[in-house]
């Protein structure tokens, strides 16, 4: 069985989704609403051909060359790299006398337009062609049946010419014309771009390969962004494709009593959820582990959704954790994340770069509330987190998830049920004793092995993180505000 040559689309992310690229010498449909990025992706497709020494042709029925020049210039590209055939004025091309014909003007316009396109293709002999856009042909055809015949005629015209054709459709009037289903069945592959407007923040864009004959492509939605240089497409993360061998040994924090809660520390390739009300020390405990990792020479990354980087470094310094030296050495990276501007797909791509390019061994997400803001649909968020944690587990990365609970005192609640996706859950609480507000720490579960079931006091001060002896005289632990009624001796004092 003959196999077709695979050619690059000019976009690395899309090539990954397509498992290498598009089969050459076929007809493809690129569809999407105005503003979704079709023209930019089409230009990338032609430029990839030019870089291979191929002739390329851009046929525009909707935009003028000046408008295309503006798009190309915004990405630093030059339209002179390939041929551009402009058909924006029927009067200039077909003449004004067509109005006096006994035939309908649209019949002459459509037939004449198709003929001129064929003549230009014969002259240039391109290997890649972009036809932008089908909505203009649909408008000229008037009749759905005639429109379908002309598209089929175009396909037959290009057949046997060793030309890869990209038909661009902005979906204007597609349903009224009945052309959508026909086009999908007619083309060898269909790529759909979408632009979504959220209630707040930047517009989100996503891509889906609806079909591609003979290729086992990555199905589903893939986030992307339009930036200078083209489309940044982030293929959907599939954890099973990224397994790496590692030893699942415990990872210490440098605080023996803290490590003993998890029988020596969290294992490599596991995720730990730190949950509790604001102010109980969740971020500081994560920083303790990250600082210890950097002291061992392991690279680590913090994704900070809530707190400013400067504030985080200053607070860590107050608790005897010098993060600045590790930032300066490049061992530690703190990345400020704006959830209003970042899609979950781009965030997953950032994490992959940290793991595969920097080789990080530990990662912290602070906090999941900020991550939730990046994707309001909770069910999809759970799936995204699950796949991301599975990927990090496959790579042997120790992950800390910080999940603030709502409220400060009383029964605590969370707007995101992620405890089941984490391998270990560490609970922090306030409690009252001797007229002072103190903190308690306990481990609720640890899939990776044994863990303490005791409740211990937690102190975070200028001496760093300290964990006290088990507190055996508690009342109301499950209320969210446990009270300690035992002797003073087990409680830690200031040093």
Automatic annotation (TrEMBL):
Domain KaiC: 5-247, 249-481
Presence of the UniProt keyword Ribosomal protein in the record: no
EC class (word): transferase
The protein's Enzyme Commission number: 2.7.11.1
UniProtKB keywords: Hydrolase, Kinase, Phosphoprotein, Repeat, Transferase
PANTHER family: CIRCADIAN CLOCK OSCILLATOR PROTEIN KAIC 1, PTHR42926
Protein known as: non-specific serine/threonine protein kinase
Organism per entry: Sphingomonas aurea
Higher taxonomy: Bacteria, Pseudomonadati, Pseudomonadota, Alphaproteobacteria, Sphingomonadales
């Amino acid at each position: 069985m003959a196999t077709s040559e695979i050619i690059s689309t000019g976009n690395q992310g899309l090539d990954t989704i397509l498992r290498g690229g598009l089969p050459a010498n076929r007809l493809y449909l690129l569809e999407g609403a105005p503003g979704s990025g079709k023209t930019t992706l089409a230009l990338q497709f032609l430029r990839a051909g030019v870089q291979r020494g191929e002739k390329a042709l851009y046929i525009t029925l909707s935009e003028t060359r000046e408008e295309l020049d503006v798009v190309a210039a915004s990405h630093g590209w030059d339209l002179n790299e390939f041929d551009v055939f402009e058909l924006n004025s029927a009067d200039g091309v077909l003449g004004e006398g067509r109005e006096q014909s006994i035939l309908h003007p649209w019949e002459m316009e459509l037939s004449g337009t198709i003929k001129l396109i064929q003549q230009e293709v014969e002259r240039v002999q391109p290997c890649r062609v972009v036809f932008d856009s089908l909505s203009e042909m649909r408008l000229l055809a008037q009749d759905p049946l005639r429109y379908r015949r002309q598209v089929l005629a175009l396909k037959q015209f290009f057949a046997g010419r060793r030309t890869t054709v990209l038909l661009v459709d902005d979906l204007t009037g597609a349903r009224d014309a009945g052309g959508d289903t026909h086009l999908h069945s007619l083309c060898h592959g269909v790529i759909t771009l979408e632009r979504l407007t959220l209630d707040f923040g930047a517009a989100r864009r996503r891509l889906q390969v609806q079909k591609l004959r003979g290729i086992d492509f990555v199905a589903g939605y893939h986030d992307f962004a339009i930036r200078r240089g083209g489309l940044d497409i982030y293929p959907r993360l599939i954890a099973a494709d990224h397994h790496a061998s590692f030893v699942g040994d415990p990872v210490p924090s440098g605080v023996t009593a803290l490590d003993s809660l998890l029988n020596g520390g969290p294992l490599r390739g596991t995720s730990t959820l730190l949950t509790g009300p604001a102010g109980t020390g969740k971020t500081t405990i994560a920083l303790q582990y990250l600082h210890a990792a950097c002291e061992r020479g392991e690279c680590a990354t913090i994704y900070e959704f809530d707190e400013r980087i400067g504030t985080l470094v200053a607070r860590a310094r107050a608790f005897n954790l010098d993060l600045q030296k590790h930032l300066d050495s490049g061992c530690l990276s703190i990345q400020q994340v704006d959830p209003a501007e970042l899609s979950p797909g781009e965030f997953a791509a950032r994490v992959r770069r940290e793991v595969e390019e920097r080789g990080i061994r530990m990662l912290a997400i602070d906090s999941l509330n900020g991550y939730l803001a990046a994707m309001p649909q909770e069910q999809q968020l759970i799936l995204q987190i699950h796949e991301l944690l599975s990927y990090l587990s496959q790579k042997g990365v120790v992950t800390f998830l910080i999940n603030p609970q709502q409220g400060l005192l009383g029964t605590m609640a969370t707007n995101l049920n992620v405890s089941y996706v984490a391998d270990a859950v560490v609970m922090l609480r306030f409690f009252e004793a001797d007229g002072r507000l103190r903190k308690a720490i306990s481990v609720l579960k640890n899939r990776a092995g044994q863990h303490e079931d005791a409740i211990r006091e937690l102190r975070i001060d200028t001496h760093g993180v300290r964990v006290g002896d088990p507190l055996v005289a508690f009342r109301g632990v499950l209320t969210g505000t446990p009270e300690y009624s035992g002797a003073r001796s087990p409680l830690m004092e200031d040093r």
